[in-house]
Amino acid sequence: MLDFAAAGWAFGVVLALAFSAWLVSLIRNDVSSVDSLWSLMFLLLVGVYQYIADMSGPRQWLVLLLVAVWALRLSIFITARNHGEPEDHRYQTIRKNNEPHFRFKSLYIVFGLQALLAGFVAVPLLVAMSASSPLGWLDLLGVTLWLIGMFFEVVGDFQLASFKANPANRGKVLDTGLWRYTRHPNYFGEFTLWWGYFLLAAAGGGWWTVLSPALMSLLLLKVSGVALLERDISTRRPDYVEYVRRTNSFLPGPRRGST
Q: Quick one: average pLDDT of 153-181?
């Protein structure tokens, strides 16, 4: 059964992290750091929850391990990618659209909103950690989805980073490797592993938490993921129009013919 007191404490810690990051953003005049903190919010949520609720068992440690591997890998990758770079263009647009006083508005527009979303999306993780039932076939299916998701996310990120590191590829479109079969292998991976987390909750009776992975899917497809990234990419990379015509947007699949 979900420990609401422990969940409240865990969410409070995440809010404190968001507030601290906002204070740092005032000094740097850059809110991009919230991207590095996003996955760490989930790690804090499950870590604090497990500690305060004093839950220890195979499913609890499994969830903590999976979240820790995902969260630390993603945070380190994003931090390294953004090091020395100006504020992400997405946040520059948000800043422009919310002046004057965006520096202070960003407390709730950026950092507070991220914390609230993390708290809602993390519900299956907390429910999974609260379950006392033994691990079973549904947990195995959840871990399998998580592994598939991590493969697409990690390999996709690596392939894109390697492509961008080559000056000869400037302005070109990556259409090899996983990017040959989906225009967003990293987002597809994120989508898949979150449904894997949901199955871990469902294995413990948490079928009712389905709205959380559904919201994450909506964010990835229609809000902050695919839709936002593709909104202006074709103007920056002319070859992207042809790439869109031949390559699946999200779900991996064979390429379409050139005629």
A: 92
Residue type, 104: F
Tens digits of per-residue pLDDT, 13-29? Answer: 999 999 999 999 999 99
Specify the pLDDT at position 245. 84
Asked if 216 and 117 count as a contact pair (C-beta separation under 8 A), the reply is no
Does the pLDDT at position 225 exceed 70?
A: no
Q: What is the 3-state secondary structure (H, E, C) of the chain?
A: CCCHHHHHHHHHHHHHHHHHHHHHHHHHCCCCHHHHHHHHHHHHHHHHHHHHHCCCCHHHHHHHHHHHHHHHHHHHHHHHHHCCCCCCHHHHHHHHHCCCCHHHHHHHHHHHHHHHHHHHHCHHHHHHHHCCCCCCHHHHHHHHHHHHHHHHHHHHHHHHHHHHHCHHHCCCCCCCHHHHCCCCHHHHHHHHHHHHHHHHHHHCCCHHHHHHHHHHHHHHHHHCCHHHHHCCHHHHCCCHHHHHHHCCCCCCCCCCCCC
More confident residue, 239 or 118: 118
Return the domain boundaries, the chain.
1-132, 133-259
**Predicted local distance difference test score (pLDDT) of residue 259:** 43
Indicate the angle between helix axes 113-121 and 33-53, nearest 10 degrees.
Answer: 50
- Rounded distance between C-alpha atoms, residue 7 and residue 43, angstroms: 13
Place of tokens 């990618």: 81
Q: Give the pLDDT band of residue 170 (cuts 50, 70, 90).
A: confident
